[in-house]
Amino acid sequence: MTTRRGFLAGLVAAGALPTSGWADAGAPDYLAAALFPDGSYRLAGLRASGDMVFDLPLPGRGHAAAAHPSRPEAVAFARRPGRFALVIDCRTGQPIATLDAPEGRHFYGHGVFSRDGRMLFTTENDYDAGQGMIGLWDATRGYARIGEMFSGGVGPHDMVLMPDGETLAVANGGIETHPETGRAQLNLPFMAPNLTYMELDGGIEEQVTPPPGLHRNSIRHLALRGDGLLGFTMQWQGDVTTHPPLLGLHRRGSDPVFLAAPEVQQARLQGYAGSVAFSDDGSRIGFTAPRGGVLHLFDVASHAFATAHEIADVCGLGAGPSGFFFTAGTGLTGRLGRGRPAGVAQAGCQWDNHLVPVA
Amino acid sequence: MMRVFALCLMVLPGVTLAQTPVQRAVDVHILPGFQALAQQTGALKAASAVGCTDLEAPYHQTFDAWMGVSHLRFGPTEVEDRAFAMAFWPDTKGFTPKSLSALIADQDPVVRDPALFAEVSVAARGLFALEFLLYDDRFASGDTYRCGLIRAIAADMDRIADDILADWTLSYGSELTTPGGDSRYRTGDEAAQELFKALSTGLQFTSDTRLGRPLGTFDKPRPNRAEARRSARSLRNVLLSLASLRDLAALLSEGHPGTAAELDAAFDRSIALAERLEDPDFAGVTTPQGRFRVEALKNSIDEIRAITATRLGPQLGVAAGFNSLDGD
């Protein structure tokens, strides 16, 4: 049994040290949005023990969040095509600032801070142009909007800061949407997802595109290992009767590698992968597939499929003590070590989409 | 076209009332729909071979037939992007006029070779490319190359319609009706859920895209984004899609009379609103009154969607997980 201290030591080794600032907010290990039984959408702070250390109201359905690297501040993003993001002081539960998407933009639901916490980056849609953008916000001046840059593609979704602290990795899903047509996908025949590495000023350093047969595999979510290995999950928009890989690994300067389970298990995923995470020791990578109600695990070194675990409506996933921590739409939170998944708590809420580590 | 058509005629007499909703959907909804499409594309191809004037009637008849099946977006229509090659819309970046202009400017000989033309961008093929060539001032003036292009598009559509029909007739129909074994559907529930998904996605497309795109926002209505507005059939497409989706909804709700009645009444309201609209290309969205009426139609379709999701879905065993339905 890994202790909390041991788990934290693991995080330190991975280069992600929680600071005292977050201790003031109950020292959550993760942030997650949820729908509560009273109908309210809230952002919760969770410990790997399953304890909920806070839950703070949101104005609408959330998606992911960004945790400030030192201060106990969280930015909770609306689910796309939302136009709000709320900066919350997690000690008091009070909103500190509101991010309103500028005219002609909406958020995609993900964002990330610069290493020093002075700048916030958000994935956005310039919907009249059908182009992805990264919004820049100054966290030292009340989260003022200070600029934007091209995301390198269409439909940017998840984004991470690379270990060098000077490069962003952006998952450009490739799917064009417009708020006037809801979540309708407007460009499937021509969609071209990519993984874009860019400097913090927007200079594109490297782009990775799936091979031709996989161009309808929308790259959505990312997981980063301390050594810069990037894991990405995809959502298949092509023929539903084929079952392409939904997980990839990429290291800068190399070709991407695509990982799939045997056909029968792969078919169960219904072409849809949710969150992705490396295990605490980085030796395994897992992703959740809420439509299939399964979590797939792979060995990172050999790329081999390890196993599938059935967990109803599972979606949020992060590194946790001795492996992974997960949340599900059923309210369950649990741990996954080397054996079978073990529930640690059953909340009354429905956990939404993502689990964001508090670093 | 005749080869496949003959095969279908042999399949149809098997219809009996003891069949499952999925079997009946294949027999009375899907196969007749794709048969009608193949028939109309055949007629369009034949007419274009005679000449490139007076093609409006076969164009409209083909489009009408497409509206009977355009919601059946799984299996045979998704092979080699056949559905997109039949009807590439919406076209947010204007690929169709750009691709057509490029073919015309180059006098690209690809129009003389059906195999090569099948490799041309889906934006320059199908009903919407044809609509530009027949109705848009930039393309509608006749010359020899334009006529060759029209013939190539018509022949390509006929080939695609035949291929879709052949796949449905020869294999996909039985995969859907006899799940398990080699079928990609493990159970009858999975097959019913595929049809349920076609129904709900079809309703969503008509509401969000066919109506949502021209509506735009109150400050910025977008009548130029209406589907097939050049041939003034935007409203007609909404009506025909509703008729076809109603047909499918009735088949899927057969065993659930309460839901069936609710759906029927909701479709009645939508279709009545659409019939009273008298705005064939949704140009009226720029006036408050016209906009209000299109919005009312959209809301009525969203009511059908709500019944479909909350009543029919659970009855067909469609899981309603918080995350599994999120799609993000």
Provide a quick synopsis of the model:
The complex is a heterodimer of chains A (359) and B (328). Chain A has 359 residues and is mainly beta.
Task: Provide the descriptors you would attach to this structure in a database record.
heterodimer, A: mainly beta, Methylamine Dehydrogenase, Chain H, globular, disordered N terminus, B: 328 residues, A middle domain of Talin 1, Four Helix Bundle (Hemerythrin (Met), subunit A)
Mean pLDDT of chain A: 92
Number of helices of chain B: 12
Strand content of chain A: over 45%
Q: What kind of sheet is the major sheet of chain B?
A: none
Query: Radius of gyration of chain A over alpha carbons?
Result: 19 Å
Structural class of chain B, by secondary structure, is mainly alpha
The helix content of chain B, as a percent range, equals 55-70%
CATH third-tier fold name of the largest domain in chain B: A middle domain of Talin 1
Whole-number total of structural domains of chain A: 1
Mean pLDDT across residues of chain B? 92
Shape of chain B: globular
| CATH overall fold name of chain A | Methylamine Dehydrogenase, Chain H
| Estimated radius of gyration of chain B | 20 Å
Q: What's the CATH architecture name of the largest domain in chain B?
A: Up-down Bundle
Helix content of chain A: under 10%
CATH top-level class of the largest domain in chain B: Mainly Alpha
Task: Report the CATH superfamily of the largest domain in chain B.
Answer: M75 peptidase, HXXE motif
Side-by-side strand order of the widest sheet of chain A: 3-2-1-28
Oligomer: heterodimer
Percentage of β-strand residues of chain B: under 5%
The first-to-last residue Cα distance of chain B is 41 Å
Signal peptide (chain A): 1-25
Organism (chain A): Ruegeria spongiae
Pfam families (chain A): DUF1513
Protein name (chain A): DUF1513 domain-containing protein
